[in-house]
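Notes continue from the previous slide.

Worked example: a multi-chain complex. Inputs as given:
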Amino acid sequence: MKKQYPKPKLVPVPSPNMVPERDVDKSPILECRHLGIDFGGLSAVADFDMAIGRTEIAGLIGPNGAGKTTVFNLLTKVYQPTRGTILLDGQDTHSMTTAQVSKAGIARTFQNIRLFSKLSVEDNVKIGLHNQTPYPMWSGILRLPSYWKQEKVAHERAMELLSIFDMQDLADHQAGSLPYGAQRRLEIVRALATGPSLLLLDEPAAGMNPSETAELMDNIVKIRDTFQIAIMLIEHDMNLVMGICEGICVLNFGKIIAKGTPEEIQSNPAVIEAYLGKKKEA
Amino acid sequence: MQRIGSAFRRVKKETKVDYATYLGVIIAFIVMSVLQAQGSLSRSVSGMLVPICCYVCMAVSLNLTVGILGELSLGHAGFMSVGAFSGVITAMSLQASVPNELLRMIIALLVGAFFAAVVGFIVGVPVLRLRGDYLAIVTLAFGEIIKDLINCLLVGWDENGLHIALNIDGTKSIDSLGLSENGIEIVKGAQGIAGNSRIATFTMGFVLVMITLIVVLNLIRSRAGRAIMAIRDNRIAAESVGINITKYKLIAFVTSASLAGAAGALFGLNYSSVSAAQFDFNTSILVLVYVVLGGLGKIWGSIVATVVLYVLPEALRQYADYRMLLYAIILILVMLLTNNPTLRSAISTLKEKIGGGEKSEGGAGK
Amino acid sequence: MEFLSYLITGISLGSIYAIIALGYTMVYGIAKMLNFAHGDVIMVGGYVAFYATSFASSSLLGEDPSTAATVLATIAAVVLAMIVCTVLGVVIEGLAYRPLRQAGSLAVLITAIGVSYFLQNAAQLLFGANPKNFTPVVSGQLTFFDGQLRITNVALLTVVACIIIMVALTAFTSKGKMGKAMRACSEDRGAAQLMGINVNATISLTFAIGSALAAIAGVLMCSYSPVLKPTTGSMPGIKAFTAAVFGGIGSIPGAFLGGILLGIIESLAQAYISTQLSNAILFAVLIIVLLVKPSGLLGKMAPEKV
């Protein structure tokens, strides 16, 4: 018996940074200037300069160990950058913690899935809605009206967000028991729940089969169009990257070796060399 | 319509266990009260009622730290101690001015909870920066520090108010407080408290258990509780969705401490003498055993385990010398049976054969 | 001079903590568990040595035994204590901890507590609850500066034993096949198994070494403060655990350093601040150290990979 849900409305989570229509504001949502980090004297990322438009889908690619995930960790302040600045909508994130960056509008997924695996799917999304449905702790303990009101909002919004990937029926399942692909999708839903203006996806298609990947591509574009947000993704699947990214940035040994449109990147000799090696060596 | 129906089913599923827990406690209270009124309870059983209520609160509140927040605390008895001493000092000081025993008890419990919460906050701020076994050893250390400090504590009351001194170098005694003639000597260093009027009642114990349950269960089912469980399941992911880790760890820790403080106050008011040695490391461990055997994060489990394990040594009394040895063996065997994969699967097959396919509860443990 | 004698007391007390802490830290490093029963193995070691020496002096040695015979009897008693404790440690590991290898750390912790209760209560049944008066294995003292500074031979022996054990353990774990196997197990048990290392045997060996050390610590401790009760081991056990964490749990030099420092702090705090609060001061120092350096003095913090 399949449960019937009303047609998903997909109302975007209200965000101060939201732009009502595309192409109204061309200013970048994110700007990195000379961003860099050293680990014990070793430079992991250096001179990372990049800007992402408000509703752009950007790709970050590069061979294994190039420092792609480190860039995400810098943007979300899991690591404090050694050098450089990150401007999120013109605001310097230097003094922010990971949690504050999330409130400011950056959401992310993880390469090695990090769900709250003992909690239900719905609770995972509700935790993503943490700062969207605030009420004080004692209101929860005493079950005051604000508790009921916000919990209702949280439930409805969680169901709506889950409907993006047709996951409403899984709401009561334990997150850790979901199949791999569903766990990846749930991570995206959870990230969206925080009401971001920039969504970072770390290898969203890893471990997915071609048909799942094709569906994911559609969904990423759909998410961008519905929520009017910027998306930056790390991915090894070139079909996905070349298919949906408007701008691509190639990283090797912590440095940007190329930037441009998919067409430019595909013909860039430095990129080919980084991926395939020099002709002489081969 | 169908949506409301499904939402209702979902809510029911989520809170069914909670309601059953409340109901179980209420039924147990009624049954024991009736038996007590009929006089069919032996003295030893009657005497166990209030301590059991206190330990149930201890276990449930510790489960909030260990099971829900996921941080091992080995110093929970320290908060009980703070609650017991501050509560009993309050009750003894107010003996003349608040003749109503119930009111005095309620004030004492609130004071106990308050001071334990304050200590919990002081302990929590530095401690929660640490992780895993380091956090465990520091909570243990704090428990021992609290015990040693209370062992040095001298408190008296007279018409000029409270007199408090710390006997640090071992030269002071209760006389150095300079109490007036009609003053009361309350805490006498390592000897602790003596001559406390025993005003704790089983009804109050029941009320305290219910309050503890409401606070803990409602917290878990709310936004703050989900944040706490998110930190337990994946700290980095919790941070990445905007949860303030320190704040929610502190909320869990301080709530847990204050409930333990209230339980300690009630415990103290149940005895005529109280000493700091009663709330040492072994007490912390005892409560931790209740929590782990009852199941991490399972509130009803903590209640059942507390009652069973509190009564078990009494039930083994006929074996006199061997009872603690038996207790130890039972403890080890239960841990082996519930945590060894081979033994556990053997048990669940056995269950299926007997119970006809009853669902086993495996898989939740790590 | 007074200070010096307190310092020496502290160092010798700290050496006992260090020997116990070495056992704790090895077991933690390799089996990744807090063996709360470790302190009670010390107590068992003390009892075995106690009964062995009293048996020797009452039945084997005559009225006025020669020094050589006494020394021999003492050594035999210590060796016997070590053997009993080693066997006990391996049996405990095999029966109680091995079945829980895949279980959560809390389950193992509670089992260890159960084993600790078991040992204490079994000792109470076997040996009685009354404290026994332990005869120190070494008597006498050295006097310096016209009797202003006294160092007991027990203190000397303790410090020497501790240093020898520390050096031997470091050498054992850094060289040789078994030592390498131990370090491999402590890094990654699964990978070690895939490389053909017998993980169960390695963990058993660790328990054997740790328990033998506990026996030595038991004898030394009972010589230091000659009262033996079923609960004798629990407080030194907790303090040694603290010492191991203090120095950085899992690290052998850390356990040594932590133990010595803890002994010194305890002795000085007792002498100059407060006897009653010496434990509180000791734990307060631990907390401060951990807040400044969350992995202990010599411990390494593994960064979490995101």
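Summary box: Residues 357-366 of chain B have pLDDT under 50 and may be disordered. Strands of chain B lie at 153-158, 161-166, 184-188.
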